[in-house]
Structures are given as C-alpha cells and as structure tokens.
Design brief:
Chain lengths: 289, 158, 749
C-alpha cells in the first residue's frame, strides 16, 4: 500500500473541512472493508484518508426518535443485524445485514459504506428501499435529507456531491403493520456476493413494495398498490402478471461471472414469489408492525 | 496530519506506544513490527480469515484494518490465548480433536471461536458454522474444528 | 511399559505449535539483511514482448535490481520435473496469464510493489488457446515452439504434448457382442489447490553455494533442479522446507524458486518472495479434462469393454502434468474386471497456468466420466446401480489390469458398507436422490525413502524424516512407529525434517506414499536398532544372542525383560554415544510396464451421497455424504479422519463450485478468493460420515496402505448420480452450480 495522510477528525465540521481542502484526493474511511482492498491493489490512491470513527455524533446508538430509527455513519452491519429495534421494525434489513460477508466483515463494514459504494449487489439496499429510508448528508452548503431511491445512479456512482458526507440513515417506523422478507441468490451457502438481492414488504393496506438488485446498474424499487400481490387469497395467475411487470426493470449483465442473465431473470421470479409469500405469512403472523 | 501516526494500544495485555506508517495494516504491524507471526496472511481481501484477530472483543480481518485504526484498542492475537503459558481450553480442544492439520488457518479459526465463546458460551453446531464461516480451511477440517469448539464450550461454560 | 500408540488417535506432533501460533511457515521467517521481491506479470495470456523499460523502477530509491530474462545466463535456463521447458523468466514471449517477465528486488515490500508499477512492458497481444477444443483445432497456434520439445518428438508441431495408447483386447470384437453401448463426453473443470498458505520462498547465497527456504513438498527434487540450473554439486544446495501450510500437490515442484535464487545471487543478499493468492492461482492448478467414454455391457450388467478417449488440458509448460495424464488414464477402466479396454490419452498444451499435481492426480477427472457412464448403463439395463458395481468389481488378488498389481483389498466390502450407510434402496421423497461411485488410484509406482533413527543415551530418540508434514500428520505417524518399536514415549521423540543437508533423502511427499514408504523405512531403522541392542545385550548380560529377543522396546532375556532405555543407558554409560538405525524402502520401476511402474498399493474409495435439489433454483443440499476408504490399517484414526473428511469436502468444492473462468484474451477472470469459491463451514453436508475398512492387507507398517486422496476420487460422480436420481437428467459438466442444475431441469434430456 502506498503512503497517504491520515486524518481523524472529531466532528463533522472538521471532516467536511478536510474533505473540502483535499477535493477528490480525499477518501472517507468508515469500516474500510472496501477502501483498504482498493488502496492495497492500487486502484484507489488517496492523498488523505478521513477516518470517521472518532466522530461521536456519527456513532450514536441505534435508537428510535421522532417516528424513525436512526443509523449512524459508522454503524456496522453486526449492530444492524442484532439491534432489537431493527429486528422489531425492519426485520428484512436485519436479515440482509446478516448476510453481508463473514462475522469479521460485519464487525467492520458499515451500512452507510454499503450504500455509498453503490454496488448493485449491496445487500442492504433493497430493504432500505422497501422501508423508505432517507439518507442524511452534510456539506459546507448545509444538510440534506435524500430519499434513498434518489441516491443510487450506477455501480460506484451516487448523487452525492463533491465534499458531501453521509452522516446517517433514517428509517421511518412503519405506520401500518407490515410483513417483509429479504432473500438472495448465491453460488454457495457460505459468504458470497449475491447474484440477486431481493426484498419484499407488504402492509395491511395491501401495498407491496418490492426491491431488487444485482440485476442491473442499480437496485430498483417498484410498488404495487392494486392489493393483489399482498392478498393471501389471490391466485398465482392474478399475481404473476403484476410481478412480471414489476420485475421488468431487471437487465443483468451478460459479462457477470456469478450467474448468466437468463438464470438471473428466472431466479428473480422464483425468489420474488418466495419472498412475497414469506412477507405475506409474516404479516399474518404479526411478526412486524 | 501525517503519513506516520503515534499508536497507543494493547496487544495481548502488553501496552505499546509506537509510531507506525499509516499505510500499514494491523496485520503488517502485528507481524512485522511486533513479530507476532501467528496471525497469518493469505487473501488480503477479507475472505479467508487467516488474519483474524480480536479487537475490543470483536473479530476483525486485520488485513482490512489500518494499524492506526487500532489506536486505543485492545487487541488479542493467537499468541495471547494461552493462560500461564499453557494452551487454553479452546486450544487444547483443537489439539485433542485433531482440528489442526496443516495449521495455517488455525490461528484465525481459534480467534473466531474464542470470540464466539465470549459472547455465546453455549453455541450449537450451526452457531459455530456461522461464526467460523469467514475462516477458510482448505484441509477442510471443519467437522473436527466444530467438534473442538463445542467441546471447549462444554468444558468452560458453567 | 510404554502403551502401544500405533492405531491410537494420539495428538499431532507439532500440534501445540499450530494452536499457539508458534509454528513457523516460510513467510514467517526473517533473515538478517533480507530484501523483498515482487514479480512483474502482464494482464494478458499470450504476447510477444517488444521492450521492457526498467529505468523508472530502478531509479526508485530502495530498489536493488530489476531482473529480466536478459539479466540471466544465456540461453536462459529452463527447468521442469521431466522436461526443461519452463524458463526462469519469460523469454521473448509470455505464454499464459501471469507468467513472470521480471523480478524486482527492493529493501521493502512497498518499494518493490511501486517499482513493479514502474516497469514498462511494451507487448503485442497474440492469440491464445485455453481449451482442449481450441488447442486441438486445425490451424491452432502452437503453444510451445517445436524447438522446446524432445528431439524427434513426432507431436512437436501439434499442441499434443503426449499421446498414450493403453489397453487390452479388441474393442471392435467386444462391441459386436455388447447388448448395450453407452457413449458420452464429460468435462472436468480447471480447479486449483488453494492452499491457505500462499507459496513463498527465501533464497540466499551461502558461501560458494545456495540456500533456500520455501513452501515445497519435494525439497530433494527442488535441490536437484536448483543444482542443475546453477551447475552446483547437490551438497552445495541446501533446501529448508518448513512445514507447508497445505500442499494438495501444488507445492510439489518449483516455479518461481529459480528466479528468486538468481535474484539472491545477483544482489548477494537474502531475497524473499511471497506470492499473493492470485499469483498462487497462476502458479499451480489441476489438469482439466474432456473425456469420452464408450462403455459396453451385457444385458446382465457385465462390463464388456471400455473405450476411452481422454484429453487432459495441461498448461503452457509441462510441469508434472504428463505423469498426471498417464496415471490418471492407465486406471481409466476403474477397479473393475473389464475384459477389453482401449484408452487413448493425451496431454494438451494450452496458454493457461501450468497444470501440476493435485490430490487424486488425474483419477477424479476420469472417475467422474466413467462412473457417470456406468450409471447410464445400469439405468438403461434396469440394474441396480450398486449391484452393477459389485458384479464387476475386482475381487481380492484378481489381476484386474493385465500386468498391474492385483486388487489388494476386499473392495466389495467397501462398496457394501457405503451402500449401507447411505440407506441404499430405501424410498426417498420427490426432489431427492442418491448416488454412489467408486474410485481407485495407484499409490506410488516408484519411490524411495531413507530413515535414520537415533536412540540416544538417555533412551530418547530422534527420527530424521525427509517427508514434508503439510497437514497429513506425517511426523506423528512416524513417531508412533518409533514409539512402539523402541518403547520410547511420544514426548521423548523428536522428528527432524525440512533440511536437505541434515535429513536423508526421501524422493517425494506425494501419492499418499509416506505412511507406506517412509513408514517402512522407519520400521527398518527401528529394527536395525533392535538388532544392535540384541547384540549389545548379549555382551552386557552374558547371554547368547540366540536366546535374546528385542522388539517393542523390550529386550527379552531368558530370565527377565529389560527396556531398551535401560539397555541403552547401560551400554552407553562410559563414553555416551547413541545407537543409529538406518532403514530404507523403495518401489522400483517395473520393466515393460506401460506407465513404468506398478502400484505399490491402491487407494480404493466408495462415496455415496444423498442430495435434495431445490426445484426452483437448482440449489443442492447434501443431506448425507458417506465416504468409505480401504486404509489397510489406520495408524492414527483421528488423523485419517482429518484427511478423509478434508478430501471429501474438497471434492464437493470441485463438484459444486470451483472452476477457473477465462475471458476472450485467455485471462483468468476469477483469480483470488472473491470469485473462486471453495467450501466454508456453511457449505458442509448436513451429515458427513467417513469410515475406513481395515483388513491389515497393505504393504506398509502393520498392514497400512496410504490415505489422503481416496475420499476425493469419486465425489463428483457420486453427487452427479444423486442429482440425476433426483431430477432425472444427467449433467456431464462440472461444477454442478445451481445455474447448471436449473438449466438441466428446465431443458430436460
């Protein structure tokens, strides 16, 4: 690994100042599980690395306030996976976080880092989309609240501006009882990058939110408000065309080593049906509000 | 701000105050500066787990953590598991169950197992499989490793 | 009296060092004044080198040298196990993705890394062949210039490195009598050893010689090759081989070691090179294969003939792959009584990393095809798949391959036990299936091992052992033998290994040979000491030698017993001294044998698998994996289980997820741990049962045969057959990824 400068600011303001001073040569270090790999293989050669972990305001405990759950910029997957609040209100997010890498990785990797890298295969993106997460940012020109659906552009590219820092994620508590489920497709059962990520949420009002990733440049969110998908009594024949339309946004790359496009598209449907079924069952069991 | 950084940390109960290049990983620091070569280097992308150590009670891949990030932390490596210079219950169980074959992955396996037992004294086999899924063993001694972890739990837990 | 330890699950010698982090592997060594090397490679499979500009790299402070082929003796030395075809560094052209074109030496690894980035290589991409079909296509580019081939090689202007014709009987005549002929083509993927310890090497000048520490299974072969390259006497080349952190065949033969040695001589300092995992993938791999089987049956399931056409894809350099071709194909008809056999087997050169030895050594490649084809026959004939195997399986003492060692085990016992453990014949719910397959591999066909045991004045003992202990637990087993034979407790035995200057020659650590060859040598050395003690005891106790027996650590006099330790102490009391015992075992070549040597023993395994297939996704769940091996006698059952479990799981990796993926430029796309997947603790069968058959019928100590490869031999066909049983479709390519299984279910036949 080549030399760089290391900064360990203690406030967001200080971090923003360093970001502003170094421009594109600055890189944010939270968990480091992607950054350090990139720096070691020479793909990323920063002039300064800004470590966020000493900024107290970014690492507050996960807690519910004002009708939402706040995740900090340095909140790691292991915290998300085990947080009683996440398990209670956003179980599919806990499932997704629990699938990321190994325990060692989940002890370091942050959920904010996961979305800022904008990998189409990011496990936490589909549940965050389904739950309507809002990304909180700070920059010299002020703070923003960005619906997560407006964050992703394509692999490695987001709508974040130069000098802008993600300080956290807000998850609005579901107002209606909701059942949700996360699922993924991999090459082995052990840790693996997903060739499909998929999350479904159905609520009491019959709205179905479906999000899927790893089958296009960015994760996709689609919503069905007809009530048919969420209806446990509706026949498969009625659901199939709706699901089909919702999955039409998938365009998996033919260059992928992990799975061919044909298989991915077929599995999207299989996993979509299964996750929908699980979400409906969970709603019925009252597993989540 | 500099490309060297003063580091103050504890490794296996011993405090170190040293200056390290910021581009050295915790793995580099442990192996090259402290000579603690029990922690192994293999994939350096956080997939194999050979470099697993415990930092503040949690396992990390030391190849993906800069040494400076361990400032103020308490680090335990495989060399720190022994009690009074003798293998601890987990290490003994690995010996008794033939869990160490070539041995290269074993320090990492031990650290993941140790961390598991610290937070879950009564794991089931599937808990062990989950906790150790980030530690590849190409000798594929997974069964004997799992048996050792379960046996150590039996011995240690009240 | 010392309790007998042979046959007991005693703790591993070196085990404590392995669980405390004290075990020193090559990469853990630090030498005074050590420098650090990195390789310069190109991101292309085949290319003509136009120029290499080292100036920017050499100008970097801390860089000691940047060596290319031009800095080596001319013509550039080439080397290999049998054919000297691999250059120390690429000469004029690179022939596979990752072939080193230069080696950079610097004061620190960081400087070496940066220097590598500054070496400018100008090259012109050339077309590459990376598959059997492409390499054998008319008009294909030649991977090796004909001048590199053996003089007079009739295949020199083709990509066939070799072609062998084995067999007996007349296939055409047999075919005319057959009630059923099944013909299919099967492919075995390109997989890699993936030892968790990456390859590493430290070389240094040593007076007028050379010293090297490296991850190597055959230190004495490396010593021979280095001596030849550097024109040094063997005595001036010292190879230390710290316990490898896993070998699996991949650490048998040198690849980068000679380049590191040249760098050490040039700089005059110790040079250390540790390959990245990605580079290790480019250094070693298993042969992949495309194999056609045509199998003839009588209607009662009796095998009439096997007609095999087999292409093993080797790399750009031969390494040991030609031997993989012969050993893997000579037994292509398996452990069965087949009256007529024709085998055409070839090694096919390609622009891929050099294929070398790997656990199973060619047998998994052919067993996959043969056993799957046998199942096809059984199904077509309506004969039970276990029954058809039992019907044709060679019985003990039967010369099932003409001129070959007769069947050395009660193999039907192995197959019956596996069938029993998998509940063969019990009904299964839909979506589940069972498969069973048999694998048979020659152990060593030639080999030699010398052992020296020193019984010291206090009754403790030292064994000098040339076998590399890479996880199989070699030292433990040999210490057990010494313990029982000389009556020395395990903790008073030291096994010294890994130094060619000190430890007597052992030819190889491969082919599951060590328990037998080195075990017999150890036994011989112990018997030598026993004889010496008997003579000494005669003098000491004034008894005629004919009335004394010395065995198992005890000298038996007519009126009493004295322990070896007591005799040693009494005999050596005045001057000190020791008893030195020497032993040797050898397996010579067999004159006229088609592959030059008959099997010292066979590794025979039967694997049976029950699988559940997810009908939507094609994902497999291994519900039960049974693997029964004929070990003759398990000297350390706990270690045997470690090897057997490990081989079984590695076999599942090959069968389910592992394979190199190439791009259109012949580059390996999935180098490293992220996209080359091996089994983790979450990928295990829900139930794994490994068992051993022990009839004491092996040629090794106490009736032992070799173990370590048996359980990998036929995992793929057992799984393939189970999947076929579950979904009704045979899949003939590996790995059986969810996608491939799904496609088979969708497409049907």
């Amino acid at each position: 690994m080549q030399a760089f400068q290391y900064a360990r600011p203690e406030s967001v303001a200080e971090a923003l100042a360093i970001l502003a001073a170094h421009g594109p040569g600055a890189r944010i270090l939270a968990g480091g599980t992607d950054l350090v790999i990139g720096m070691r293989n020479g793909e990323i050669r920063p002039t300064v690395v800004i470590d966020l972990k000493r900024i107290a305001e970014l690492s507050a405990a996960l807690q519910v306030e004002d009708g939402h759950l706040r995740l900090g910029a340095t909140t790691v997957m292991r915290q998300v996976e085990r947080s009683p609040e996440v398990l209670r209100y956003f179980p599919a997010l806990a499932e997704a976080a629990g699938w990321v890498g190994s325990v060692q990785i989940r002890n370091r990797a942050t959920i904010v880092g996961n979305i800022c890298n904008a990998s189409p295969a990011a496990d936490t993106a589909p549940p965050l989309l389904v739950y309507g997460a809002v990304v909180l940012t700070a920059s010299p020109s002020g703070e923003r609240r960005l619906p997560i659906d407006d964050l992703f552009v394509r692999s490695g590219v987001t709508t974040l501006q130069p000098g802008e820092l993600v300080t956290g994620i807000d998850l609005p508590l579901p107002v209606k009882p909701m059942g949700s489920a996360y699922t993924r497709l991999t090459r082995r059962r052990g840790t693996d990058l997903a060739s499909i990520t998929l999350c479904v949420g159905v609520d009491e009002a019959g709205v179905t939110r479906l999000s899927y990733g790893s089958v296009g440049p960015r994760p996709v969110l689609v919503v069905d408000e007809t009530g048919t998908l969420a209806d446990p009594q509706a026949p498969d024949a009625a659901k199939a065309p709706i699901l089909e339309e919702m999955l039409a946004g998938a365009s998996p790359s033919p260059r992928s080593m992990r799975a061919g496009p044909e298989y991915r598209l077929a599995m999207l449907r299989v996993l979509g049906r299964r996750a929908l079924q699980t979400a409906i069952e969970r709603l019925a069991k009252g597993m989540a509000r | 701000m500099s490309d060297r950084f003063p580091l103050d940390l504890t490794v296996n109960g011993q405090r170190y105050q040293v200056e390290v290049p910021v581009y050295h990983t915790l793995l580099d620091f442990l192996r090259d500066d402290l000579g603690l070569t029990g922690t192994k280097e293999c994939c350096v992308v956080g997939e194999c787990g050979a470099c697993t150590v415990i930092v503040d009670g949690r396992t990390v891949n030391s190849c993906l953590m800069l040494a400076v990030e361990a400032d103020g932390c308490e680090v335990i490596t495989v060399e720190g598991l022994a009690v009074d210079g003798k293998p601890n219950a987990l290490q003994r169980a690995f010996l008794e169950h033939g869990s160490a074959q070539c041995g290269f992955c074993i320090p990492g396996q031990l650290m993941s197992a140790q961390a598991l037992l610290m937070e879950n004294p009564h794991p089931k086999a599937e808990d062990v499989h989950e906790a150790l899924a980030g530690n590849l063993c190409r000798c594929a001694g997974y069964e004997q490793i799992t048996e050792a972890v379960l046996a150590a739990a039996e011995e240690v837990a009240p | 009296m010392n309790a007998k330890v042979v046959g007991a699950s005693v703790a591993r010698v070196g085990g404590e060092a392995r669980v405390t982090g004290a075990q020193e592997y090559t990469a853990d060594l630090k030498l005074f004044d050590m420098t650090h090397a990195k390789l310069v490679t190109l991101d292309i499979a085949r290319a003509r080198l136009i120029s290499i500009d080292k100036t920017a790299a050499e100008a970097l402070p801390g860089v000691l040298t940047v060596m290319t082929a031009e800095d080596l003796p001319q013509p550039v030395p080439r080397f290999g196990p049998h054919v000297d075809d691999r250059p120390v560094l690429a000469v004029g052209q690179v022939n596979y993705h990752g072939e080193p074109v230069a080696i950079v030496v610097a004061e620190t690894p960081e400087v070496a890394e940066e220097a590598v980035r500054r070496v400018k290589v100008e090259y012109e991409e050339l077309p590459a062949v990376v598959t059997v079909d492409a390499a054998l296509a008319p008009g294909a580019i030649l991977v090796q210039d004909p001048s590199l081939r053996r003089a007079g090689d009739p295949l020199a202007d083709t990509n066939k490195f070799s072609e062998y014709h084995f067999g007996w009987g007349n296939v055409e005549a047999a075919a005319s009598e057959a009630d059923l002929i099944v013909e299919n083509t099967y492919e075995y993927p390109m997989v890699t050893q993936f030892a968790i310890e990456p390859h590493a090497c430290v070389a240094a000048p040593d007076g007028d010689g050379l010293v090297m520490w490296t991850t190597i299974q055959h230190p004495y072969q490396l010593q021979r090759i280095l001596a030849k390259i550097f024109k040094l006497p063997l005595a001036k080349v010292r190879v230390y081989s710290p316990d490898p952190g896993g070998g699996f065949g991949g650490k048998q033969w040198p690849h980068v070691q000679p380049a590191v040695a040249f760098a050490a001589l040039r700089t005059g300092r110790p040079v250390r090179l540790v390959l990245t995992l990605e580079e290790s993938f480019q250094a070693v791999r298993r042969t992949s294969a495309k194999v056609r089987y045509r199998t003839g049956f009588r209607s009662d399931g009796t095998l009439l003939f096997e007609d095999v056409d087999s292409s093993f894809l080797v790399g750009a350099y031969a390494d040991i792959a030609d031997r993989v071709v012969t050993k893997g194909n000579w037994l292509a008809a398996g452990p069965y009584r087949v009256p007529t056999v024709r085998i055409i087997a070839r090694g096919v050169l390609s622009n891929t990393p050099a294929a070398t030895a790997m656990r199973g050594f060619g047998i998994p490649e052919t067993a996959w095809a043969r056993e799957m084809n046998l199942d096809e026959g059984a199904l077509a004939l309506g004969i039970d798949r276990v029954e058809i195997r039992l019907r044709n399986l060679a019985r003990y003492g039967e010369e099932f391959v003409p001129g070959e060692t007769p069947a050395d085990g009660r193999w039907e016992q192995t197959v019956r036990r596996a069938a029993e453990l998998i509940d063969w014949g019990e009904p299964l719910p839909a979506g589940r299936g069972r498969g069973l397959a048999v694998g048979c591999k020659s152990g060593p066909t030639t080999g030699i091992s010398y052992a020296t045991v020193r019984l010291l004045a206090d009754g403790s003992a030292i064994l000098l052992c040339g076998v590399s202990d890479m996880g199989q637990g070699a030292r433990t087993v040999f210490a057990q033998i010494v313990s029982d034979e000389l009556g020395v407790p395990m903790e008073r035995i030291e096994v010294v290994s890994g130094d060619t200057a000190v430890v007597p020659f052992t030819q190889q650590t491969s082919a599951s040979r060590s328990t037998v060859l080195f075990g017999n040598a150890t036994l011989g050395a112990c018997r030598d000491i026993q004889a010496q003690l008997r003579t000494v005891a005669a003098t000491l106790y004034g008894v005629d030698e004919s009335q004394i027996a010395a065995e198992g650590g005890v000298v038996r006099l007519p009126d009493r017993e004295v322990s070896f330790a007591e005799v040693a102490k009494a005999a050596l009391s005045s001057l000190g001294g020791e008893f030195i015992g020497n032993g040797m075992d050898r397996k010579d070549a067999t004159p006229g044998h088609p592959i030059k040597g008959s099997a010292y023993f066979f590794e025979l395994n039967c694997t049976a698998i029950e699988v559940a297939v997810d009908p939507g996704t094609g994902e497999l769940t291994i519900l039960r994996h049974v693997s029964v091996s004929d070990t003759g006698k398990s000297l350390n059952p706990m270690q045997v289980r470690g090897q057997d479990d490990g081989g079984a799981i590695m076999g599942l990796g090959h069968a389910m997820m592992e394979h190199y993926i190439f791009d259109e430029h012949g580059r390996v796309r999935n180098l490293g741990a992220i996209d080359y997947r091996i089994p983790t603790s979450k990928d295990l069968p829900l139930e794994l049962i490994t068992e051993q058959i022990e009839n004491g019928d092996g040629p090794g100590p106490y009736g032992a045969k070799g173990v370590s490869e048996g359980t990998i031999l036929c995992v793929a066909p057992a799984l393939g057959a189970a999947v076929r049983d579950a979904i009704g479709v045979a899949i003939r390519d590996l790995p059986l990824t969810p996608e491939r299984v799904w496609r088979a279910m969708r497409d049907g036949k």
